[in-house]
Write a structure and sequence with these properties.
The structure holds three protein chains of three kinds.
Chain A (H helix, E strand, L loop, with lengths): L3 H19 L3 H38 L5 H21 L6 H32 L5 H16 L2 H6 L3 H10 L1 H25 L11
Chain B lengths: L1 H8 L3 H17 L10 H11 L6 E7 L5 H17 L3 E6 L4 H16 L8 E6 L4 H9 L1 H4 L26 E6 L5 H12 L3 E5 L4 H10 L4 E4 H12 L4 H4 L1 H29 L1
Parallel strand pairs in B: 1-2, 1-4, 2-3, 4-5, 5-6
Helix pairs in contact in B: 1-12, 2-12, 3-10, 4-5, 4-10, 6-8
Chain C lengths: L1 H18 L7 H36 L7 H9 L12 H31 L9 H21 L7 H44 L5
Helix pairs in contact in C: 1-2, 1-6, 3-4, 5-6
The chains are: A mainly alpha, B alpha/beta, C mainly alpha.
Chain lengths: ~210, ~280, ~210
């Protein structure tokens, strides 16, 4: 039961998804569509599970009064506040939920990503060392693409954008396509191993 | 010279941060208005929408969150403007949890205020659905079953624009604005390859290089890469948004990075030479 | 209007709190970080409730009588057994459904979308009317084969095989260099967005 039932479920779910691609029969497609619909619902529950885990971990830290436990209390309060106003007040544009999303979530997430600009500059200065021929090729391509893809590149040399497009559309493309094909072969073999039960690491330990 | 490079080598990273910040702030305060031209993948994106017959339905999937907004929101509003100008019926949705409010904002700014379009007749926001690729395949079977109601809670069966829309065969083009996973790659793999429907993509600059193979193979009819792609597209549509406004700052920032790479390597090689 | 102005000031405050990390880790950054985690978690659950739970599960089950939806409801509920050590193995049933479907999706997606169509797209004529097109096709063909040979680790990279593999490395370095250049572009764009918000929406000093 502990291992056999999950293996059977994995096999059936994968089989229905793959077979749906090849079998044009309406009845079969309807069954596959239903199973896909179930996955959407289970994924929604998994999101709630993740949030439940966040609550559990932070509750433990608050109970033990670990470092910054007051901030953990604020975290939990914000979670329940947002959950409450969302579920009972609605999520439409103009709602309190939407106001908090636009004026707290949005700027904070955007700024966290914006920090990366500074760190990439620092990394480029400190760690980008042209020690080998291959590293030199990487650096030259990076510089050509960086300058060619912005308006100043076109000011320096009128054909710079076309040259950059050539780099992206020919040599760069060859490398990326090889990575795509290699990854595709790996994904297909891993998918087959999972569906046939040869790969069981997703089940964890007993 | 050696002392200079030793000083450079030990430079506090906060000094680097200041230079980066100035490279962004100064061109925004004092624009340089550096000219630029449109590249082929961007022209392909524009042309693909122009070729859709007027009055047709288009699926508009905005798969991103606020973290990618500066690159992708300009593309979103410019694409909406082009589609609505051509009287295309826009069925918007998002596969990222924080996507729907961004879509609502874009629809409010462009469809409602600029074009005075009618919600439910000219455009609709189906909202978000968890499931990534599974949602895409599920839509291939039935869009109304996957999205039984729109973002505002109205049953899809009661929305005029959704009448006659069963699956992908009822839309003429998929316009995807993508911030990562799930996004363009999954639309190509699960939908374009399976249902052979036209697909164009606007994506972050991080993702753009890996989508060039899809563009070359014809799986993508057009590709907007990052803020530069957004700027070129805004130029084609005739809109001045953050894409075009940010190009001077983008140019200066790239020059600064280039200088840092050169300086860092000069310092490294001179000090290495001294040691040997 | 008052709420809009308050919103901009709140957004600017949190933006500056996050940016303060650039100087050093501090209380304001940690406060903003914790508020962000709490709000994003609460946001996500509320969204799942309105966009998935109600329209795809609860309404069809209770109002339309689609009793078969008891199965995904049961499987979803089983996920929460992960919190109870003695019966946590039951959560594998729900995970199995997801793993099976996503494995199937990977096989179909990568197989049809990536493998076959990408190989097909690289079968290009080496002799065309245009010299540039012929050269480009040659570079694409040689580049792809060389890179794939580099990825083949079952044979030692020496002799002629090793020579071709080294050419593959050069193509990969060009790819990674291009990716780095585009990554820089992406990161700078995100910063431009935030600075634009501070200068225009908050301070109103841009023309």
């Amino acid at each position: 039961m502990r291992k056999e039932v999950p293996l059977i479920i994995t096999f059936l779910a994968g089989f229905f998804f793959i077979a749906d691609y090849f079998i044009p029969h309406t009845g079969f497609s309807n069954i596959a569509a239903d199973v896909n619909g179930w996955a959407i619902i289970v994924l929604a529950f998994s999101y709630i599970l993740g949030v439940g885990n966040v609550l559990r971990i932070n509750a433990q830290r608050i109970a033990k009064k670990e470092k910054d436990w007051v901030l953990k209390v604020i975290l939990v309060l914000c979670l329940f506040f947002m959950l409450g106003i969302g579920i009972f007040g609605g999520i439409a544009e103009g709602s309190i939920f939407d106001w908090f999303f636009v004026n707290t979530y949005t700027p904070m997430q955007a700024t966290m990503f914006a920090l990366l600009a500074f760190f990439i500059a620092s990394a480029a200065f400190r760690a980008f060392r042209v020690r080998t021929t291959q590293a030199a090729l990487l650096a030259i391509t990076a510089v050509l693409v960086m300058i060619g893809r912005v308006p100043i590149g076109e000011t320096i040399w009128k054909s710079f954008p076309d040259f950059t497009e050539w780099i992206m559309g020919v040599p760069q493309l060859a490398g990326k396509r090889a990575i795509l094909i290699g990854a595709a072969l790996g994904a297909i073999s891993t998918g087959l191993k999972v569906i046939t039960g040869l790969e069981r690491t997703y089940m964890g330990q007993d | 010279m050696r002392k200079f490079f030793e000083f450079i080598n030990k430079l506090d990273r906060r000094v680097i941060f200041i230079f980066v910040a100035l490279a962004i702030i100064i061109p925004l305060l004092r624009p340089l208005n550096i000219k630029f031209t449109v590249t082929e993948p961007v022209q392909g994106f524009y042309d693909a929408i122009e070729k859709v017959p007027q009055g047709s339905k288009v699926l508009f999937s905005c798969d991103y969150e606020p973290g990618s907004r500066p690159e992708l929101f300009p593309m979103t509003v410019a694409a909406l403007e082009q589609m609505l100008r051509r009287n295309l019926k826009v069925i918007a949705l998002s596969l990222w949890p924080a996507g729907p409010p961004i879509v609502e904002e874009a629809l409010s700014d462009v469809a409602e205020k600029q074009f005075k379009s009618k919600y439910g007749v000219d455009y609709v926001n189906l909202g978000f659905k968890e499931g990534r690729e599974v949602v895409m395949v599920s839509m291939g079977s039935s869009i109304p079953t996957t999205f039984p109601q729109d973002f505002r809670g109205t049953k899809v069966s009661e929305i005029p624009i959704m009448q006659g829309v069963s699956n992908f065969s009822d839309v003429k083009l998929i316009v995807n604005i993508s911030g990562g996973y799930p996004g363009t790659k999954e639309w190509v793999q699960q939908v374009q390859a399976r249902y052979n429907i036209g697909l164009v993509s606007g994506c972050t600059a991080v993702s753009a290089p890996e989508y060039y193979p899809y563009y070359q193979s014809g799986q993508l009819r057009g590709l907007l890469g990052g803020m530069k792609g957004a700027a070129e597209y805004e130029m084609l549509v005739g809109r001045t948004g953050l894409g075009r406004k940010g190009m001077d700052a983008q140019s200066m920032a790239h020059l600064i990075i280039f200088l840092f790479i050169v300086l860092g390597n000069l310092a490294y090689f001179s000090l290495k030479k001294k040691k040997t | 209007m008052t709420y809009d102005i308050l919103g901009i000031w709140v957004a600017a405050f949190f933006t500056l709190c996050i940016f303060s990390f650039l100087y050093r880790d501090n209380f304001f950054y940690k406060l903003a970080e914790h508020i962000f985690v709490g709000i994003s978690a609460g946001y996500g659950v509320a969204l799942q409730y309105h966009n998935v739970f109600l329209p795809n599960l609860w309404n069809p089950l209770t109002k339309e009588g689609k009793l078969i939806l008891v199965i995904p409801f049961f499987l979803g509920a089983l996920l929460f057994t992960r919190f109870l050590d003695k019966i946590s193995w039951l959560s594998r049933w729900a995970l199995a459904l997801l793993i099976g479907i996503f494995s199937g999706a990977a096989i179909i997606g990568y197989g049809s979308g990536d493998l076959i169509l990408q190989i097909n797209a690289n079968l290009l004529p080496l002799k065309t009317n245009s010299l540039l097109t012929s050269l480009n096709n040659l570079i694409l063909t040689v580049g792809l084969i060389a890179c794939l040979i580099y990825f083949f680790y079952s044979k030692e990279h020496k002799g002629g095989f090793g020579f071709v593999a080294r050419i593959g490395i050069f193509f990969l370095m060009i790819s990674f260099g291009a990716s780095f250049g585009y990554t820089v572009m992406s990161r700078m764009s995100l910063l431009i967005g935030r600075v634009y918000f501070l200068l225009d929406d908050w301070l109103g000093i841009l023309h």
